[in-house]
Amino acid sequence: PLGLSTPLGLPNLHHGLSNSAGWFRRLLHKPKPSSAESSLDAGHSASSSPSSSSSSAKSSRSSPGTSLARSVCPEPVLASDINASGSARWAKSYDVCICHSDVDLELVEELVSYLEGQPESFRCFLQLRDAAPGSAVVTELCDAVQNSHCWVMLITPGFLRDPWCKYQMHQALAEAPMANGRTIPVLKDVDRKDYPKELRNLYYIYMALKEKSFRQIRDTIVR
User: In this structure, which long-range contacts are made by residues 137-141, counting pairs with CB atoms below 8 Å and at least 24 apart in sequence?
Assistant: First the structure.
């Protein structure tokens, strides 16, 4: 519900975003096997021995609780899966759009360097670096939001004072109204009472230790 206040008391993101995240995992499923591979698998299944059929029957009689536990166990996201040519990841130009104030540029450059240096080689949009010279600011901000899979909001005192940051935040929320793990607020040097009301239905990462927060952001992106 939009009036949820619990996020303001939980600086650690691991508990909150597990319910809303998962978009990147679904996005990065391997492409379906070719028809030739499917035929081969079907032929192999048809020629399986009676003992295999017996084993399958025994498995089907296992307790529902065991089967359910196995079915919901998430598979790890591998860099090879993320980078597969058939992945829907490549439908957008960027994996992450970093929304930030100009006064926080140094910190943002460190975050971008960290994410782009990961095994997944995340593609980050950094306005100062990636915006097309001569283009209108509004156009560039909207394009960055629309062409990114998720958005990191670095909410600092500078962010709260910058009208362009608020504009980009609203564009991101309009792009994915229910968030679905795609909007990642990161709070730094801001009182909880000043946390934007538009984001209060989302859990946030509180940046106290920079290295730990960078890891949390990375883990949230791939979760």
Answer: 137/164, 138/167, 141/167, 141/168, 141/171
DSSP state of 208: S
pLDDT, tens digit, 9 for 90 and up, residues 170-222: 988 888 765 566 899 999 999 988 999 989 888 899 999 999 999 999 999 88
Reading phi first (left if > 0) and then psi (alpha if -120 to 50, else beta), residue 181 is in left
List the structure tokens of 126.
């950094």
- CB atoms under 10 Å from CB of 76, counted, come to 7
Q: What is the pLDDT of residue 192?
A: 86
Amino acid at 202: L
Query: CB within 8 A of 157, min separation 6: which ones?
Result: 189, 190
